[in-house]
Write a structure and sequence with these properties.
Radius of gyration: 22 Å
Strand content: under 5%
Structural class: mainly alpha
CATH topology: MetI-like fold
Order of helices and strands: HEEHHHHHHHHHH
Strand order of the largest sheet: 1-2
CATH class: Mainly Alpha
Number of strands: 2
Number of helices: 11
CATH architecture: Orthogonal Bundle
Helix content: over 70%
CATH superfamily: MetI-like
Amino acid sequence: MLFILSFSSQWKWPDLLPTIFSIRAWKYILFESKGTVEAIKNSLLIAVMVNIINLVIAIPAADALARYKFKGKGFLELFFMIPIVISPLTILVGMHKSFIKFGLTESILGIVLAHVIPTLPYMIRAVETSYKNLGFKWEEAAKVLGAGTLKKFFYVTLPFILPGIVAGSSLTILISLNQYISTMFIGGGQISTVSIVMFPFISGGEQSIGAAYSILFALVSLICLWIMDSFIKRYYKQ
């Protein structure tokens, strides 16, 4: 339906198909709108930066939560899950006030930090599951055979937790690409992303352009997932 709508110039009820077809929407987003390329570039840059930050935090956090027992573990697990159950606006209001003090509003870095909050729980949960399956025996065997900390991680731990990393990265990228409220709130409309340029058209503007942007958005997401899937297949094949 989106595909048909993106090529329609007039489609009224109760017609089953548009009465007038046109490539105007695609012509606009691909050639006339200068913001499309910038929006895609910013969206991917933000998603990749968010993913890197999540990995740096999630790998040690997931390791501790999955394989060690310590006081306050239950509270810490609950703390990491809070962003999923609390309304984003509740967090964003306080975050926006703090970011103004540090000069992070209307910047890509500010948006990246805002996207970390809703995506980090999914990354931690995905990597934590992999660590639970890993246990300690394989790392202990590698240590006995003389492997140092880095060798042990890259040759033993990483292959085990890589599926969790890929699953968490997929969720992180998709959720980051979908963030509209946090991007608009922290970016103040100054940082263009695909969700920012798409929203005005799908919320009452030109619907055919909104449909074209929706398809473009889906293609960007699918390409990202395909790249990660190809990487993990090649990794395990080698």
